[in-house]
From TrEMBL:
Repeat positions for TPR: 99-132
Source species of the chain: Phyllobacterium sophorae
Pfam families found in the cross-reference section: TPR_11
Key words, A-Z: Signal, TPR repeat
InterPro entries given in the database record: TPR-like_helical_dom_sf, TPR_rpt
Protein known as: Uncharacterized protein
Domain of life per record: Bacteria
Signal peptide residue numbers: 1-32
Length: 183
């Protein structure tokens, strides 16, 4: 599923631009990959955040949007390729030191090409919850980017001990190790 979303993420903006529509001016939320539950979290125009209670895009400065929504929204932005915006959203958290926020900060940072910095964020997330499979996947992918396949395989084995070989995190990291050009 995530690979399909990744593929569509790159095709949708081009298709919209080809149709004469500017992606950032869409007033209706656009759905992107969601957080832990796999639910889709909409993305909004720059400067907005999706509020799950009102089901609307609101100002990112709104004090009514809880950290959970902001964290999930940051991940949706990162999955949509809007990495800098994801980091800016994470900067608005009241508590930026959750396993998810640290993981997503690492993800967005790594995707911006700052792999070592991303790894440092991932390690902080691991310290909070060593059994958090998603951070283990992303940490492993960062090691693949650095060519440290032995360390990536260690993360793969840790994921196996957490959720087996059929969970998405295991499958995605295994694919990244086998086909590094896909990450």
């Amino acid at each position: 599923m995530r690979n399909i979303v990744r593929s569509l993420r790159h095709q949708l903006p081009l298709a919209l631009l080809g149709a004469g529509l500017a992606v950032s001016t869409l007033s209706t939320p656009v759905f992107a990959a969601g957080g832990e539950g796999g639910d889709a979290t909409p993305t909004c125009a720059k400067g907005k955040v999706y509020d799950s209670r009102s089901k609307k895009c609101v100002s990112k400065n709104s004090s009514f949007v809880p950290d959970k929504d902001r964290t999930e929204y940051a991940y949706a932005l990162a999955e949509a390729g809007r990495y800098q915006e994801a980091l800016e959203m994470l900067d608005t958290l009241k508590d930026p030191n959750t396993k998810e926020a640290l993981n997503y900060r690492g993800y967005a940072t790594r995707k911006l090409g700052r792999t070592d910095e991303g790894i440092s964020w991932y390690k902080k997330s691991v310290a909070l919850d060593p059994k958090y499979a998603k951070v283990r996947e992303y940490l492993g992918e960062a090691y693949v980017v650095k060519g440290q396949i032995d360390l990536a395989k260690e993360q793969l084995m840790t994921i196996k001990s957490i959720c087996g070989t059929t969970c998405e995190e295991y499958k995605d990291l295994q694919e990244a190790i086998e086909k590094p050009s896909k990450i």
